[in-house]
């Protein structure tokens, strides 16, 4: 059937300029990072540690609170359901810098809900969760809409409780898709910049994550910025491979 539209080589050749455009920056970054012999600074280690700590906290928060919300949207009809379903995608198209201002207005010291979270590690987690939540929520909603309803009904008829049906029947069916969504969401949280710098600031050792350290390193320590960028590139690549593997597993 593919022969109807010609040979694959011609199509790949036509797309080579774009492929080269995507690969060249990646190759240049890796080459510079591998040839760099600069010793990591204390700020370097702090940024890496803080990024992984806050992004992991963010994904735990998203999983705990997002899973029931996704299930409600996928399985039930309730007032304003369509509005809620649209709202969860808003952070994806909302500019990160605008998201940071919105978080500050909502949860700053003089915000709608006054808190002292601004410019703390908690603010980093909140900013990351805000921008990353849609990626898990959308994957979870899609997964929950495709489970075997008949199996659930049979278990309920045999006396299985609601929580038991959810944890023993529904979640196992959605495991691969939920994991894929969680990985994507975590990777997005790890790379968050705009909302973080406005709501949490860029305090070294306190709120400075890897993306913020890269931004500052552009002017103060370019070699460190390159090393951090290479780390994030490696993490992103691993995340993409993991998501692809989870997707293939879900299709089996």
Q: How would you portray this structure in words?
A:
With 252 residues, the protein is mostly helical. The radius of gyration is 22 Å and the shape is globular. It starts with 7 loop residues before the first helix and ends with a helix.
Keywords:
single chain, globular, mainly alpha, 11 helices, MetI-like fold, 2 domains, 252 residues
Low-confidence stretches: none
Give the overall average pLDDT.
Answer: 92
CATH-defined fold name of the largest domain: MetI-like fold
Domain count: the total is 2
Q: Count of DSSP helices?
A: 11
Shape: globular
How many distinct beta strands? 0
Secondary-structure element sequence? HHHHHHHHHHH
Structural class estimated from helices and strands: mainly alpha
Give the end-to-end Cα distance, rounded to a whole number of Å. 24 Å
Kindly state the percentage of residues in helix. Answer: over 70%
**Radius of gyration using CA atoms only:** 22 Å
CATH superfamily placement of the largest domain: MetI-like
Q: β content, as a range? A: under 5%
Q: How are the SSEs ordered, and which strands pair?
A:
Elements: H1 8-35, H2 42-75, H3 81-87, H4 90-93, H5 96-107, H6 121-144, H7 149-157, H8 162-190, H9 194-199, H10 210-220, H11 222-251
Give a short overview:
With 252 residues, this protein is mainly alpha-helical. It is 77% helix and 0% strand.
């Amino acid at each position: 059937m593919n022969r109807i539209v010609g040979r694959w080589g011609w199509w790949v050749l036509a797309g080579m300029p774009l492929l080269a455009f995507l690969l060249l920056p990646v190759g240049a970054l890796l080459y510079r990072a591998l040839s760099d012999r600069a010793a990591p600074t204390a700020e370097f280690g702090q940024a890496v540690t803080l990024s992984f700590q806050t992004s992991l906290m963010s994904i735990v928060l998203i999983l705990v609170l997002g899973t029931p919300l996704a299930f409600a949207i996928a399985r039930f009809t309730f007032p304003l359901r369509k509005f809620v379903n649209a709202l969860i995608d808003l952070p994806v198209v909302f500019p990160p810098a605008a998201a940071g201002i919105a978080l500050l207005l909502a949860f700053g010291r003089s915000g709608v809900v006054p808190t002292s979270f601004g410019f703390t590690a908690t603010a980093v987690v909140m900013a990351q969760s805000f921008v990353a939540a849609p990626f898990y929520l959308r994957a979870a909603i899609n997964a929950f809409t495709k489970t075997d309803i008949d199996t659930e009904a049979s278990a309920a008829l045999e006396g299985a409780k609601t929580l038991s049906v959810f944890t023993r029947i529904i979640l196992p069916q959605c495991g691969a898709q939920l994991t894929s969504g969680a990985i994507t969401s975590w990777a997005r949280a790890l790379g968050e910049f705009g909302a973080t710098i406005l709501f949490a600031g860029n305090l070294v050792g306190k709120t400075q994550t890897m993306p913020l350290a890269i931004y500052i390193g552009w002017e103060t320590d370019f070699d460190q910025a390159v090393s951090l960028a290479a780390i994030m590139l490696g993490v992103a690549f691993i995340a993409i491979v993991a998501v692809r593997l989870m997707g293939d597993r879900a299709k089996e």
